[in-house]
């Protein structure tokens, strides 16, 4: 029978940069279909951080194949449409999922600064015009 792709059921996935993406594609048919992953019309090339695993399953009604795409340490450049194409000698079908990799801003340590000490006596007489009050912060910064 012609293959049928059961997964993925979501059309888009949002993931933070540096995380591990796992997308499963499940297809069934007789004979068991072959699954190929692609991005932007090009078949995915296995790299250090890109891995595909496939498991065959069979029951009385049909055979199916589960293909798992895993991209570790995903980066912004990995965003895009990922397609899983299932084919056997009766035909082919494909489904895609859009992966949006979101930038993760570095978390800054929470710090507090001690309040500045205001010293009104450090301003020279008549420093401020129109009888304004003068304040001085450590480091010699004066303001009216």
UniProtKB/TrEMBL annotation:
InterPro entries, per the entry: Cell_Adh-Cytoskel_Orgn (IPR050958), Ig-like_dom (IPR007110), Ig-like_dom_sf (IPR036179), Ig-like_fold (IPR013783), Ig_I-set (IPR013098), Ig_sub (IPR003599), Ig_sub2 (IPR003598)
GO molecular function, one term: axon guidance receptor activity
Keywords, sorted A to Z: Cell membrane, Disulfide bond, Glycoprotein, Immunoglobulin domain, Membrane, Repeat, Signal
Location(s) in or outside the cell: Cell membrane
UniProt domain Ig-like: residue ranges: 3-100
Gene3D superfamilies per UniProt: Immunoglobulins (2.60.40.10)
Gene Ontology cellular component terms for the protein in this record: axon; neuronal cell body; plasma membrane
A Pfam family of this chain: I-set
Any single biological process term in GO: homophilic cell adhesion via plasma membrane adhesion molecules
SMART domains xrefs: IG, IGc2
PANTHER family, A to Z: CONTACTIN 5, IG-LIKE DOMAIN-CONTAINING PROTEIN
Protein name (Swiss-Prot/TrEMBL): Ig-like domain-containing protein
Upper taxonomic lineage: Eukaryota, Metazoa, Spiralia, Lophotrochozoa, Platyhelminthes
